[in-house]
Predict the structure.
Amino acid sequence: MNRLIFLVIGMGLFWLVLMVRLFDLSILSHKQYKEAALNNSLKEEVIIPVRGQIVDRNGEPLTTNKVSFSLSYPPQMSLKANLPILEKEFGELSKIFPHLSKEDLIARYKKGDSAYNHDYIPIIEEVNHDFILQHYPKLTQSEYLRIVPQSERYYPYKTSASHVIGYVSKANAKDIEEQPIAKWTKNIGKEGLERQYDTYLQGELGHRFVKVTAFYKEVERLALQNPIEDRTLTTTLDIRIQLTMDKIFEDKNGAAIIMNANNGEILAAGSYPEYDLNHFIGGISHKNWANLRENPYKPLINKFINGLYPPGSVIKMGMGLAFLEHVGINENTTIKTPPFVEFGGRKFRDWKEEGHGESNLYKALKRSVDVYFYLLSQRTNFENIAQTLKQMGLGEKTGVDLPREFTGIVPSPSFKKKRYKENWYTGDTLVSSIGQGMFLTTPLQIANYTALIASGKLPIPHFAKKIGDEEVIKESRDVLSTFQQSKLPVLREGMRQVCSEPGGTAAYSTIKSRAYLACKTGTAQVVGISQEDKKRIREADMDYFHRSQAWITGFLPADDPQYVITVMVEHGGSGSGAGGPILAELSNVLVDLGYVPSKVKK
């Protein structure tokens, strides 16, 4: 009897607990589980922003975005229960894309599918607009297929300003780690302005919150946050000037820069040869990459910020300023300048076989008298000269808004000891005084140094004029002492005589210029030439890669400096012969476009 009572009590307790649990699930916890079910049916979708445009100073597009489409399917359709649906879908899709079999499409799908993936899986990407329009009625019959618009970068000027604009290419894992939005956009700026301003140009993701079925079919849109997209980067470039520069350099290698001397805005900059930016979109082919890598003229190097060259005689204005400051002379001090200086059993010759007789600083600049610089550079510690040159922006980064700018070298006794663990000799002083030896500069450094001479302040060169609606202003810097400032008119006058007076080293080669020019030529050797030879081998008779680098740098108008033009022709032989005509042509473009007036030379 007792056992029966215990059994009845036990059964009663069991049913009581069961009823309490049912009450909890159906009544007390109903709201909690209802919310969980609702959450399971909600989906957040990312909206990919359209990449911003890059335009020139007049609003001319330097980049555009072509519209294409991707075809995507919901995740988890490769499960056994859903596989027949997927096979049917892909069977129909392969009829529209006959180059892709049903098996190919399934393989693509399975590669992106997993139990942890809740995003639509792209199956076919970069389908052009016309193709989608042609097959749109058929494609939209599927309740699973999603057609998603996407943008593809395009560079309408192809090679022009390629090293400035840079390019966009597919993002790798490291890129995504540094720039998380690239996980969604799939692309990232790899070079030039595309890289420098990538964060701005990428924009910001948008989001859609929707209610979906178990098959991810959209039932209701609950909320929308639009992406921040299509931002505009307005550059300082004038594509009209850039295209003219490109035409001039069609059969030449080197670099050229045209810059506002007062605020650092760069109107045109070219590194030659250039390359077609469109080849990099979506990943460059092995053939195109091999052609660029194996080209002996190095099209992949941005020569105006990454090309390091001995500056030759374009350094002589800076040398002259250092002499005025540290040697105890003035611009009118005249010294004898014979055909050569002999030191250590070696003859350091002037470029002119018979020498220049006597020279002051004006003549030394106008005629580029090497012996003047050989002699005066020995009258002070070269550390003093190096310090003046560094003040003028040499051996330092300019701060230009492009990635990976090189520094260059201003040689000095302390530099040689630190770098090579060697002592400095008088021979080092002599060759450095004319921009040879260990001296290395970039063309942009020479342009900036020329701007300092022209304007009295050292600009920060830049390519961004407006980021969105916000003006980019880079303040030029006061880097010279009061005494150094007082001697800049001397340097300007010497440069004016080079270009605009008979006997100047560039007066004849720039004669076709319609602008009032001041300039300085430079010819920098790349191989040693025996100083014992009175008559040197002609540059034209040398192997191309043994010819000297040809420099010319100047400003205009000579009496009211506004713009700087710097030209470096690789292995051009002569700064006057190779660079002078280019300087004249580029100055005429500035006249024609109204940047500077046409003026009779004084």
Remarks:
- The mean pLDDT is 89.
- The chain is about 35% helix and 20% strand.
